Amino acid sequence: MRDHARERGKAEFARVADDVLRERFPGPPTRGGGGTPTTATFRSLTKDFQTGIDAYVWLVGQFCDYQKGCLEKYEAMRKERRPDVKGRHFAKNPKDLFAKDSSRTGDSSFYVVVSSGWYADKNLSHDGKFAVLVQLSYVCGLAYAIDWDFRVTGATDELMQRQTLVVMARRLLEDFLAS
């Protein structure tokens, strides 16, 4: 039933069927696919979220409130630098988020409204969300660990390494510019 609902683009029915399956046939906990508590900070405001996607969406909204038009600028820069990439992270129409032949197109379980009529692809790893946030913060003129933060409880080694490298790169740049 779940697969049938997905094939027909009925994301809500697919979620209900999936919930029933998980309840009736609980398996061992898996890595990924479940909510991971995440703390997000924007300037002086810190909020705790039950999932990384909720924290991601909140931060994107904060960036948009801080810098009007940042999603347009972000997508224009991304398209200019990577014209071969078929999908997008943000779009005014959810169908534009994914390649034309993608099975994700039209499936609302893969996207979420983020700000002012914009949609975001939400099928990203925590590391992927962080990478997009770093890029978006660059467009907004904000700095990671100074203006904003994204802390995932039980973060992967890859995410923690990336966060450490971003802070280190900023410090190296500051040292270089100060000399």
Whole-number total of structural domains: 2
Distance between the termini: 64 Å
What is the ordering of alpha helices and beta strands? HHEEHHEEEHEH
Helix content: 40-55%
Largest sheet: 3 strands, antiparallel
Q: Could you tell me the radius of gyration in angstroms?
A: 18 Å
Secondary structure: number of strands: 6
Q: So what's the CATH class of the largest domain?
A: Mainly Alpha
How do you describe this structure in short?
With 179 residues, the protein is of the alpha+beta class. It has helices at 2-7, 11-24, 52-66, 70-81, 126-140, 157-178; strands spanning 38-42, 45-49, 90-91, 111-115, 118-121, 148-152. The chain contains 6 helices and 6 strands; from the N terminus they run H-H-E-E-H-H-E-E-E-H-E-H.
Topology (elements, then pairings):
Layout: H1 2-7, H2 11-24, E1 38-42, E2 45-49, H3 52-66, H4 70-81, E3 90-91, E4 111-115, E5 118-121, H5 126-140, E6 148-152, H6 157-178
Antiparallel strand pairs: 1-2, 1-6, 3-5, 4-5
What does it look like?
With 179 residues, the chain is an alpha+beta fold. The protein has 2 domains: 30 residues; 145 residues, Replication modulator SeqA, C-terminal DNA-binding domain (Up-down Bundle). The chain is built from 6 helices and 6 strands. A 3-stranded antiparallel beta sheet has the order 2-1-6, with helices on one face. Strand 1 and strand 2 form a beta hairpin. Helix 3 packs parallel to helix 5. The longest helix is centred in the C-terminal third of the chain and has 22 residues. The termini are far apart.
